[in-house]
Specification:
The complex is a heterotrimer of chains A (about 625), B (about 130) and C (about 170). Chain A is of the alpha+beta class and about 625 residues long. Chain A is built from 18 helices and 10 strands. Among the domains of chain A are: about 160 residues, no CATH class; about 130 residues; about 100 residues, no CATH class. In chain A, the strands form 2 sheets. In chain A, strands 2, 3, 4, 5, 6 and 7 form a 6-stranded antiparallel sheet that branches. In chain A, strands 1-10-9-8 form a 4-stranded antiparallel sheet. The longest helix of chain A has about 35 residues. Chain B is built from 5 helices and no strands. Classes of the chains: A alpha+beta (about 625), B mainly alpha (about 130), C alpha/beta (about 170).
Chain lengths: ~625, ~130, ~170
């Protein structure tokens, strides 16, 4: 029953999307009888039907309707309700439906907001957006139908992969989708802006909030994903430079570059074509990332079920998107007079874009190079964290410096910022860092430099913040605060990541129950082992006492080994004692059915500070959205 | 004020503590992290609980104990398992492009910015 | 000038798309193909039933040696066993078994139950020795020649097709 309802909604939305394209084009051509009201109501219905189709699938999950293949394959009646719901987007088909929902929601909101004043522009945007929606609906129906039926109806479902049964992962995909599917709207708007010869300045003003919103969600999505990886994957890392992570990072770089450039477009009416290119690239890269992840062309920790036809469809769709945008760009792009002065704000934003492009290209090359090498020479190589760290880390140094220096410059002016305090702050931060480095006895020159410059960024930003509060700069008030907070957050982030990488401690050893392990000042006591039955899994819980002689503290950690029954999987749950300054992280695994357990003991300093810094970055961004006046 | 003092003290303790415990297992851990676990989905040897990872770990442990250098261990393993096992692709003819491309793009970016600036300076002069 | 730019961009995009579509068809399972054509390293292995060791150099006296890594706990090993027995009977080849991370009693039972295709059985209790052969999961089988150079490498159980291929290389008895 739910399956039929779901199909109905999907077909209705697909039909509406076709009609929207038809009527919008008709309206743009200018008929006597305006079909504008029809378009408005159709876009409303499209929103309703698409959302309903999603709710139908969710309903199927909640009541465990196993006549739907998708529910049967990914759910189980004994699963807690929240994971039944999050199970909807924990698989390829459901997440694709979520993807389409985001496309439609953004399409609706954008149209609603802009159709009064810029009719032609928003109609064209609606057309392009609906071409995307249509494309993904066809993709959904032909290769990944979430409402396919199964007969005879199974009594029980196969269950959701246990490592996905987690609160962070329940919200991670929706956040990320709001981010990179949200970028579709300025993709469509950019094409439409070229076609309608829209004013660059207005284009900047219109897309700015959308860029910021998608950037915010993208950042949050990445953050939640990292937190999840940190405590769930069980090896204490939070970023692996894995293809899936990279494909969420690539659009992030583009968005960051984009909303800096949009400022130039809005204030100075410059960089119009560059903003258009970035807008098109962001969504293109989001789809490319999806292609890389879903087609199974790459090896990754987070795999979806692979199916080559899906990969092929996405590739064809992607190519069409690229060629369409290329054609429109080539045909309609106006010529531009670029005018910039050295040391002006525009110049620094351009520099920001330059570095962002560099980061983006490095990550992109690292991700797809193995594919090219294999196709062209049949050789396989791995590209992992060491590659990215080696290439990217040195470039953080100028970025950190410019992030401190850049926001102080003013528009148009060509004079360098004349302030003695820059040198002063640089000296102070070097001194502070040298003391810190001495304490840590760190010999890695590069990390030391990164420490110095992240300290500089933090101090410089705090100093500027203090000064602007004192002077009561009402003029650029909120927009300044926004960049202060974000840049401050970034400075802290890099600072704590570097400290974390220098100070992390890792020991791994084998113990029997009752045995102790002495690590300098720390005694690790493997006290006992208990076994429990839970609703959908069985768990073995170890009790491990960590006694620290120097700090005179005792912590008890309880890492688990879980054996899930639906589907049968073993997972290792880390036990983490988290403090503001440092986390103690213990995982336990059994060795080939003997009494010996492998225990991995880790000290991870400043993890919470890393999360908080990212939240500070997000706060800065939301500040700019909330204070709409200065948008 | 007192709170700040406490915070400062704990900071110092954390730092000095880190320094003491580091040292010996560092090299091994670094090597584990740079090796791909061949039987896993995109995990490093350090991150995996698999049988294969355990074996490689103990082999690496033996080799560092016998005084083998980091690079020697990498080349030993890549000889046995191919470059696929190394997360940092060694500089060979199949990876020259990989290592060079990012920098090439960076330099191209520098040229673009330079030309934009040059143009505007010209416009200003006349 | 604009045209040239456009054309070069188009060619570039076509190149990427074609590579991606070819990449889709590639096999994703990893094989240690790099080992083929290289000599195996010199290493001493403890023998299973005698208090003796075997140095890989001693394998030079065999025209061809098939080194098979197995364990009693490994199900595919059980499956390939009859193929190994067939090879022993019909092929001009010596098969060296390397017992991998196994208990001695279980291994003995395995051989007693299913027959012994090996002319020698070596031991690798903790799996470390096998790393020198590039083994990452069993069953794996390596065919080497007189010069100890790897001719073929098989990952997973040896099947009928592999047996034929091996017989073709080493010749029949």
């Amino acid at each position: 029953m739910l399956s039929e309802t779901g199909h109905l909604f999907i077909f209705a939305s697909t039909f509406l999307s076709l009609s929207l394209i038809f009527f919008s084009i008709k309206e743009i051509k200018g008929n006597k009888k305006s079909s504008f009201p029809v378009i408005v109501s159709f876009s409303k219905f499209q929103l309703i039907f698409t959302n309903l189709s999603f709710l139908t699938l969710m309903g199927g999950y909640i009541i465990s309707d196993f006549s739907i293949v998708n529910v049967y394959e990914n759910s189980h009646s004994s699963k807690p309700l929240i994971y039944k719901i999050s199970g909807v987007w924990g698989n390829h088909e459901g997440s694709l439906l979520l993807w389409i929902n985001v496309l439609v929601i953004f399409s609706f909101l954008f149209f609603k907001k802009n159709n009064k004043h810029n009719k032609e522009f928003s109609l064209f945007t609606l057309v392009f957006q609906n071409i995307l929606i249509l494309g993904f609906f066809i993709f959904l129906i032909t290769t990944s139908n979430p409402f396919s039926k199964i007969f005879p109806i199974p009594l029980e479902g196969l269950g959701l992969n246990p490592i996905l049964q987690d609160p962070a992962l329940a919200i991670h995909p929706p956040l990320l989708y709001l981010g990179f599917v949200g970028s579709s709207i300025y993709f469509s708007a950019a094409l439409s802006s070229l076609l309608t010869k829209f004013s660059g300045k207005d284009f900047g003003t219109i897309i700015k909030p959308w860029v910021l919103i998608s950037w915010l969600f993208q950042t949050l999505g990445i953050l939640v994903g990292s937190i999840w990886a940190y405590y769930e994957l069980g090896w204490g890392g939070y970023w692996f430079w894995d293809p899936v992570e990279n494909s969420s990072l690539i659009p992030w770089f583009l968005m960051t570059a984009l909303f800096h450039s949009v400022l130039v477009l809005e204030k100075r009416n410059g960089l119009y074509l560059w903003v258009i290119i970035l807008s098109i690239l962001t969504f293109t890269m989001s789809v490319t990332g999806t292609f890389l992840v879903r087609s199974g062309i790459l090896n990754s920790v987070h795999t979806f079920a692979n199916d080559p036809t899906r990969g092929l469809y996405l590739l064809i769709f992607l190519s069409l998107m690229v060629f369409l945008s290329l054609y429109i760009f080539y045909r309609y792009a106006p010529s531009e007079n670029k005018k910039f002065e050295l040391f002006s704000k525009e110049f620094f934003i351009l520099t920001n874009n330059w570095f962002m492009s560099f980061f983006l290209i490095t990550v992109l090359i690292g991700t797809i190079y193995p594919i090219f090498l294999e196709v062209l020479t049949n050789q396989k190589i791995s590209i992992g964290p060491p590659y990215y760290n080696t290439v990217l880390a040195p470039f953080l140094i100028p970025v950190l410096f410019l992030m401190g220096y850049g926001p102080k410059s003013s528009w148009i002016s060509s004079k360098p910022v004349k302030e003695k305090n820059i040198l002063f702050i640089l000296v102070v931060s070097t001194l502070l860092s040298v003391i810190l480095i001495y304490f840590l006895n760190n010999k890695n020159f590069l990390i030391n430099l990164v420490l110095i410059f992240s300290t500089y960024l933090v101090l410089q930003t705090i100093f500027d913040l203090y000064k602007s509060i004192k002077k009561k700069h009402v003029l650029n008030y909120s927009s300044n605060y926004s960049s202060f907070f974000s840049h401050l957050g970034f400075g802290f982030l890099i600072f704590f990541i570097s400290l974390n990488s220098i100070m992390s401690i890792e020991h791994d050893f084998n113990l029997k129950i009752g045995e102790k392990k002495q690590l300098k000042n720390i005694t690790i006591n493997f006290k006992k082992l208990d076994s429990f039955e839970e609703k959908n899994y069985q768990k073995i819980v170890g009790e491990i006492e960590v006694i620290n002689a120097q700090e005179k503290t005792t912590e008890v950690l309880k890492p688990e080994i879980r054996v899930y029954n639906q589907p049968e999987t073993i997972t290792y749950e880390a036990s983490i004692k988290s403090n503001i300054l440092s986390d103690t992280y213990v995982t336990m695994s059994n060795i080939s059915k003997e009494n010996i357990y492998n225990i991995k003991f880790q000290k991870k300093p400043f993890m919470n500070m890393i999360w908080l810094s990212t939240i500070l970055i997000v706060l800065g961004g939301s500040f700019r959205i909330l204070t709409r006046k200065s948008l | 004020m007192k709170k700040i003092k406490v915070l400062f003290l704990t900071l110092i303790i954390t730092f000095s503590f880190a320094k003491i415990l580091k040292a010996d297992e560092d090299l091994n851990n670094k090597i584990y992290k740079n090796l791909r676990c061949l039987v896993c989905q995109g995990q490093s040897i350090a991150d995996s609980n698999s049988d294969f990872a355990q074996t490689i770990k103990s082999v690496v442990k033996d080799q560092t104990k016998n005084g083998m250098k980091e690079d020697e261990i990498y080349s030993f393993l890549s000889e046995k398992y191919g470059d696929w096992i190394l997360y940092k692709p060694p500089l060979k003819n199949k990876s020259y492009i990989l290592w060079a491309l990012p920098y090439i793009f960076f330099i191209i970016g520098a040229f673009i910015i330079f030309f934009i600036l040059k143009k505007t300076i010209k416009i200003r002069k006349y | 000038m604009r045209k040239i730019k456009l054309i070069s961009i188009l060619i570039f995009i076509f190149f990427i798309i074609i590579t991606f579509s070819m990449g889709l068809k590639k096999e994703k399972v990893y094989d240690t193909i790099d080992v083929v054509g290289k000599p195996i390293s010199e290493i001493s292995l403890n023998l299973f039933n005698e208090n003796n060791t075997l140095n890989t150099n001693e394998l030079r006296k065999n025209k061809f040696t098939l080194i098979n890594f197995w364990a009693s706990w490994c199900a595919p090993c059980r499956k390939e066993h009859k193929n190994l027995l067939f090879l022993k009977k019909n092929g001009d080849i010596k098969i060296l078994g390397v017992n991998f991370k196994d208990k001695k009693s279980n291994a003995n039972k395995f051989i007693n139950d299913l027959g012994n295709p090996f002319y020698l059985i070596a031991l690798d209790e903790d799996g470390k020795k096998s790393v020198s052969f590039g083994v990452y999961g069993i069953p794996e089988t390596i065919l080497i020649n007189q010069d100890l150079v790897v001719v073929k490498k098989y990952i997973g159980a040896i099947d009928k097709k592999d047996v034929k291929e091996i017989l073709k290389i080493v010749g029949k008895k």
